[in-house]
Amino acid sequence: MRENILLIEDDPSISEVVSMQLTKEGYAVTPVFDGLSAIEVLGQADPFDLILLDLMLPGMDGLDCLKKIRETSTVPVLILSAKDGEVDKALGLGFGADDYITKPFSMIELAARVKALIRRATLYTAARQPEQAAIEVGDLLIHSTNFSVQKRGVDVKLTAKEFQILKLLAAKPERVFTKAQLYTQVWNEDYFGDENVINVHIRRLREKIEDDPSAPRYIQTVWGIGYKLGE
Fold this sequence. Notes:
Rossmann fold; Arc Repressor Mutant, subunit A; four-stranded antiparallel sheet; 8 helices; 42% helix; Sig_transdc_resp-reg_receiver; transcription regulation
């Protein structure tokens, strides 16, 4: 069964090249050329395994499109953008993107990123821990079987990465995780000191689960080391 990819890119030449390459790699690619069309397709088509999202889109820009996607879906999102720099990268990842590649990029690198994201998402979805089907931490209930979180009985919408960070900390409540350890275990990649990625995800996670993100109860900072689950 072929994985389905939604390609949101307004440049027809880039869209055509990427579509052709990924089709050769064995993927089924659905190209759209603006954010509004993407949201419409997501509401009608079969579930996608990955979304490739350009930031510079006509009408609804890429970040607004990403926010709409994250309202209902945790599908992996790989941002494609001509924008470079840590600010744009942190902003994109902070809105729930899973990875970021800057134009111009090689088709070999793009294919590798796509394969890695889909593989990680597939392994994550298939993972089961029946002995810890639900973890209760304070007012939070973390469900490992359906990857959901409730706070005082109300669903909390987390991205896949946010859920993985919370679950990892909750599964080992007495352990302090360094940023490098969080990155290698959640992203399943080598850590090269890119603290912005971890900082942005921790901040967004706190905004969603903490009563007061500036005085966190659940995700606590251990200065000079990393993060741990609050008592």
